[in-house]
Design a protein that fits this description.
The chain is mainly alpha-helical and 154 residues long. The chain has helices spanning 12-21, 42-49, 53-62, 80-95, 100-108, 125-153; strands at residues 40-41, 69-70, 76-78. The longest helix has 29 residues, at 125-153.
């Protein structure tokens, strides 16, 4: 399953979407003629994020802060803030290597966004593993950047 974690290569479509979404939810993400503040269906959001609909439904169960509007028959409508949150979750889980639980904890920490706390509570071993993994990934990214610049300059 290529691209399901931060360790493997990301498929081209997802890589292009990741670049596009790097600075947040860009204008023009949805090219359907609707206003930027319009509600979106699960299909529209799944296509825009490059995810499958069942993943979005699963994340609704796993992340209590993600609550799209539901209408008769259970049809989901995502607000712009729901879409931004889905993008953050996607970044944490698929690009930064967080587990679902680790991403939930990172998003629940008030005022910290998805920044990693370098001194986690020692009573939560999974949080310690998530923190150590994130620190290792940051270190490896820095090494990769130095190698890239060294190869580019030679």
């Amino acid at each position: 399953m290529t691209g399901s974690t931060g360790a493997g290569p990301v498929p081209r479509k997802r890589a292009a979407l990741a670049e596009k979404w790097a600075a947040g939810v860009p204008d023009g993400t949805f090219q359907d003629g609707k206003d930027a503040k319009a509600l979106r269906t699960i299909g529209e959001v799944a296509r825009a994020l490059g995810l499958r609909q069942h993943v979005l439904r699963y994340w609704e169960d796993q992340f209590p802060m993600l609550r799209p509007l539901t209408r008769a028959g259970g049809r989901r409508y995502y607000r712009p803030e729901d879409i931004a949150l889905l993008h953050q979750i996607d970044q944490l889980v698929h690009h930064q290597g967080y587990t679902i639980r680790g991403a939930r904890l990172a998003l629940l920490k008030p005022g910290e966004g998805h920044a990693v706390d370098m001194a986690p509570d020692s009573s939560d071993p999974e949080a310690a593993i998530v923190t150590a993994t994130a620190a290792l990934r940051a270190h490896l990214d820095a090494i990769r950047a130095r190698l890239f610049s060294a190869l580019a300059s030679s």
